[in-house]
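// run 5 | inverse folding | seed 20
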């Protein structure tokens, strides 16, 4: 064999290159398995002041940065059959604008892996709220994207610690829009031959940091008004998986300049997948949160309209597991006449506007409370989630969510308190029955026995308004109650096949872990607040 390579130096060189490529690949995988910031831990517990000083002034600031990709920087394509999938073998064509010989598109995250954008329906944003009580500053950032993984937020926090050292803690949350660019590396053309745009994600995180810094610069004395109420699901959300349990809590906050009716910001939180545009949509959009924010800020003219509040509206996603969706739902128009059955801009607008009408009515109704306890408090901790199923090997090999910790992925659970607003931070898409009760142990489940995720998380929260933010500081997929986990026959609820959910989950051990850790951070937060 050695004499062959001496006579054929080309093949010898090719063999060396192949060996080097294998070594480089192994080293890359090993580096991704180790993951960045391996020693980082999110553990923190603090309150801004003792109860006796709770009434000292609250300061609030808002910052907004646009994160819509510039489609002029990408190639264009023609969809021959209008199915929003790039299929050259079916007649789809594309224009190579930069002359590099390959198609460079914005790949939309959610639904399926082959959906390039063709235009912009409405812009995407990173919207931040900063809060200061005495010397303690914290921030909340809502990002219009399908999801971001933990290492992105760790890097952002470390960079903010250098550039905005007064900020003690930042909570990030993704709205989970299915109409923004792929920010996780899952939906970019092909699972193996990915065309994931990591540079875009880096830019999004820089914009999110700038939004935080803007919010801190804009801090000013504020008064907070809080309210929440039951929102029946009819016309708003459909549960696509038994048991039919919804996140029925619509939580709203308004922050105004002291002594005035001038709005600095409003906050709206509720649980529903932003996918009303549908899976064949080729347009970039933040989905129904866009219309909710627009209406809260500027109002709605015409039939059944409302005045706006001004300021900036921030939407924080609530429990969306289960699956909470507007797909397959009839959404009534606010004009009281039309019903929107088809996915698309009409349904999306109607859903967002109807949500804003409910939120505005709550803020202007008798249940809205002006809070006097202005303290800021945070409890957060790193947890290590045992990963099984679909994503075990991609995570283990560092292809997504880099960092492998002996069979587990590092994530984070926390709770943030601003005055009477309590926000539990869940790193994925939690099933509402874990939050509000109704976990079942149906016949045919893979793990029979008594439900483990009890008591319901919201029952242990003590704020005036209690919100459960999803996709907070990470995206680990669906958080499925263990006794409802169902991948093996016989299937639950008389199904003939396994339900959707488990395929996009970290495994059956995730829910008990996240539930237990959530109870612990809540108890620790309340002990801090109740200490003399």
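// decoded
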């Amino acid at each position: 064999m050695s004499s062959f390579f001496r006579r054929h130096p080309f093949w010898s060189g090719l063999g060396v290159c192949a060996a080097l490529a294998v070594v480089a690949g192994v080293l890359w995988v090993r580096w991704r398995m180790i993951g960045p910031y391996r020693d980082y831990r999110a553990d923190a517990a603090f309150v801004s002041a003792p109860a006796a000083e709770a009434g000292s002034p609250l300061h609030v600031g808002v910052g907004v940065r646009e994160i819509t990709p510039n489609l002029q920087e990408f190639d264009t394509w023609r969809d021959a059959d209008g199915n929003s999938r790039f299929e050259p073998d079916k007649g789809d064509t594309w224009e190579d604008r930069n002359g590099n010989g390959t198609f460079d598109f914005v790949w939309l995250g959610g639904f399926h892996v082959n959906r390039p954008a063709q235009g912009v329906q409405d812009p995407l944003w990173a919207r931040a709220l900063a809060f200061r009580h005495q010397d303690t500053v914290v921030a909340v950032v809502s990002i219009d994207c399908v999801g971001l993984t933990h290492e992105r937020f760790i890097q952002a926090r470390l960079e903010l610690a250098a550039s905005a050292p007064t900020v003690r803690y930042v909570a990030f949350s993704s709205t989970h829009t299915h109409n923004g660019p792929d920010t996780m590396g899952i939906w970019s053309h092909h699972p193996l031959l990915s065309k994931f745009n990591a540079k875009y994600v880096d830019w999004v995180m820089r914009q999110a940091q700038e939004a935080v810094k803007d919010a801190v610069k804009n801090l000013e004395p504020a008064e907070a008004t809080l309210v929440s109420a039951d929102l029946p699901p009819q016309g708003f959300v459909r549960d696509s998986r038994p048991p039919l349990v919804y996140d029925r809590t619509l939580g709203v906050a308004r922050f105004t300049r002291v002594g005035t009716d001038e709005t600095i910001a409003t906050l709206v939180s509720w649980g529903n997948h932003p996918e009303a545009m549908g899976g064949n949509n080729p347009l970039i959009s933040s989905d129904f949160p866009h219309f909710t924010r627009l209406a809260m800020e500027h109002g709605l003219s015409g039939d059944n309209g409302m005045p706006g509040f001004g300021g900036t509206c921030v939407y924080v996603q609530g429990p969306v597991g289960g699956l909470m969706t507007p797909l397959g739902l009839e959404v009534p128009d606010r004009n009281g006449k039309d019903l929107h059955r088809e996915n698309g801009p009409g349904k999306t607008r109607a859903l967002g506007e109807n949500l804003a009408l409910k939120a505005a009515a709550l803020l202007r109704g008798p249940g809205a409370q002006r809070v006097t306890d202005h303290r800021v408090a945070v409890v957060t901790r790193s947890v290590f989630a045992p990963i099984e199923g679909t994503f075990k090997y991609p995570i283990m090999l560092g292809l997504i969510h880099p960092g492998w910790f002996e069979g587990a992925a590092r994530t984070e659970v926390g709770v943030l308190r601003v005055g009477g607003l309590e926000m539990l931070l869940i790193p994925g898409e939690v099933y509402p029955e874990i939050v509000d009760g109704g976990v079942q142990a149906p016949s045919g489940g893979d793990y029979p026995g008594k439900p483990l995720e009890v008591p319901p998380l919201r029952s242990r929260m003590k704020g005036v308004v209690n919100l459960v933010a999803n996709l907070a500081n990470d995206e680990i997929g669906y958080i499925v109650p263990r006794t409802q986990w169902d991948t093996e026959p016989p299937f639950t609820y008389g199904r003939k096949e396994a339900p959707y959910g488990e395929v996009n989950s970290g495994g059956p051990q995730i829910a008990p872990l996240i539930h237990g850790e959530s109870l612990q951070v809540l108890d620790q937060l309340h002990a801090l607040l109740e200490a003399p």
